[in-house]
Input
Amino acid sequence: MIVTIDGPAGSGKSTAARGLAQRLGFDYIDTGAMYRAVAHSCLASDIDTTDRASVTERAAELRIGFDGQDVLLDGVNISAAVRSPSISEAASRVAQHPGVRAEMVRQQQAMVRERDMVTEGRDQGTEVFPDAECKFFLEASAEVRAVRRQEELLARGVEVPLEETLEQIRQRDHRDRTREISPLRPADDAIVIDSSELTADGVLDRFEAHVRQCLEDLRGS
Ligand code: DC
Output
């Protein structure tokens, strides 16, 4: 079974997707971490992230994998390194290039063969796994997401003013929702949940209830 969770930055997708995979005993793919890995590699080599051809060429050369919930780039664990604001910014830029997206989609589709999986991103229910059995779209107001992001960064010792975080979230949202290829949007058959007023456990409980219902429906059909 494939469960897709899409939504904007800071909606609580990652926490929910990780928790859900754990509760269900499913594997988990953080597809945002894959775009971050491409960005990380480009920045490390001084490749201009707006240079479509060079970034696409680099994306095709990389070996991106997962070890549990960690992301590996050519075998090296880069999970912590890809969480900085500069990588967030660069990832949002590299994710606009059609060739990069095609390569990431190819890799994502290859990863799920014959495995039960929770996969999280922006285009999982719409483009990558349109036939997924259970799809979610998680949203929250930009203000709530900015506060969450700020707390997350602070926990890692990175201090960023709230206004700056809010502005970055608005810019990334705009880029993600208006890009020409695979813009962020809920799939027609996705269950849309607003997490603004919910705790992380509240979101997770709702997801789990829907997936268990979905599993029962599949068994009954
Ligand atoms: O979820 P995240 O913040 O780690 O994602 C990093 C960037 O990658 C973000 O700007 C959106 C982009 N992304 C995407 O375009 N498609 C995905 N499936 C996942 C992430």
Observations:
- The chain has two domains: 1-26+116-221, 31-114.
- The longest strand covers residues 134-139.
- The chain has a mean pLDDT of 93.
- The first helix runs from residue 13 to 24.
